[in-house]
Amino acid sequence: MNKVAWIAVMLPLSFGTYAETGGFEAGKTPPPQSKEDAGYKGSEDTSETPVTLTKDFRQGGYVTLEGYIVKKVKGDIYQFRDSTGTVNIDAPVATFKSKTFNSEDKIRVSGKVFGKGKNAHLKVSRIDEP
User: Which candidate among 6, 12, 15, 70 keeps its CA 20 to 30 Å from the CA of 44?
Assistant: First the structure.
């Protein structure tokens, strides 16, 4: 009976260790900016914004970017790049939805813009594959 009680206590505690997986995997080189071309995919692509426009975007404005995570800066901060430039993104582990991406994987990020000019960054609420 003692073993059953021990298992009943330990089983729910073990699920928390596997809940937050996924993220960015460093080590691969992203393709050069000149090779980035999403091509024509349909009308759903009309809402995407280039990185250069986010530098002057209004505070709290919601944008969708398509490109690559180039490197991890620190903590949940990553450098994101598309064919027009780079911007820092704040992407908590939960936004990766247990998927792991590397710098060769093209992704689509959505979130709110904070800051202006070179201090602009994106607080990510969603990361998907294009």
Answer: 70
Contact, 91 vs 22, CB < 8 A?
no
CB neighbours of 20 closer than 8 A, spacing ≥ 6?
93, 94
pTM for this model (two decimals)? 0.66
The 10s digit of each residue's pLDDT in 28-52 is 777 666 555 554 444 444 456 788 8
Instruction: Tell me if 112 sits within 8 A of 61, measured CB to CB.
Output: yes
Instruction: Evaluate if residue 106 carries a pLDDT over 90.
Output: yes
Q: How many Å separate Cα 33 from the centre of its chain? A: 18
The owner of tokens 């820092």 is 88
User: In one letter, which amino acid is 130?
Assistant: P
